[in-house]
Specification:
Length: 230
């Protein structure tokens, strides 16, 4: 339906596009380690928003999973000394992502994961394409192949994330997404030859331990606000 399509396009364009802008602006002002550390606070904000909106019933297991994952992220990322601009932009990106998770849980009541992935991606592409045209900052020809590869990876990520939100809700999906730093570490070690310290391995183990804890919580509540509240 057109109203649902409009919400998906606007959600992708405004929320995902805005989050991406804040995230990359943070990377220009602070090291990736500190940006990643601050950015991965978004499961905390998503969980709090889920509790406050009634989309997720309060459970101690969720807080325990959030605590383990956050501790693991702290160990995985280093803490260089930087100014405030980068971390504040990363925190802004984390808050926008949290709102995006909640928004999509409501929107996915009226659209399948694959359809939602297509239209939110289209919205993000329109918004960021317009920003690129206005600022006259395009993609260099040498980067097009890499951009297309990232597009394919993002399409898969969108679809699987939305399927997860449909099944377990935005709160648990955001906590499970803390596995992203772990997969990054594994790929960095395998493809780039980066060494994994004991501290990083312990952090990765803590993050992985979140998954069985999340599985023990059970299904999310279905007594959530009506879809027209979107």
């Amino acid at each position: 339906p057109k109203p649902v399509l409009g919400k998906l396009v606007i959600g992708g364009g405004l929320l995902y596009g805005f989050e991406a802008t804040l995230f990359f602006a943070a990377l220009e002002r602070a090291p990736a380690a500190i940006v990643g550390l601050v950015f991965y606070s978004y499961p905390l904000w998503t969980t709090l928003m889920g509790f406050l909106t009634g989309l997720e019933a309060f459970r101690w297991q969720l807080l325990a999973a959030l605590g383990l994952g956050s501790a693991g992220v702290l160990l995985v990322f280093s803490l260089p000394t930087v100014g405030l601009a980068g971390p504040l932009l990363a925190a802004g990106a984390a808050l926008v992502v949290a709102f995006y998770f909640i928004f999509m849980q409501l929107a996915l009541r009226d659209a399948s994961a694959s359809v939602a992935a297509m239209w939110t991606s289209a919205g993000a592409a329109l918004a960021l394409g317009a920003a690129s045209a206005i600022t006259r900052e395009g993609i260099p020809a040498a980067a097009i192949v890499h951009a297309l590869a990232l597009a394919a990876a993002s399409a898969f990520a969108f679809a699987t994330l939305y399927e997860a939100i449909i099944r377990i809700g935005s709160t648990r999906s955001s906590i499970a997404a803390m596995l992203e730093p772990v997969t990054t570490l594994i790929l960095a070690a395998a493809l780039l030859g980066e060494e994994l310290s004991l501290r990083v391995l312990v952090g990765a183990a803590l993050i992985v331990s979140v998954l069985p804890l999340l599985a023990s919580v059970g299904h999310r509540d279905t007594t959530a606000p009506a879809a027209d509240s979107l």
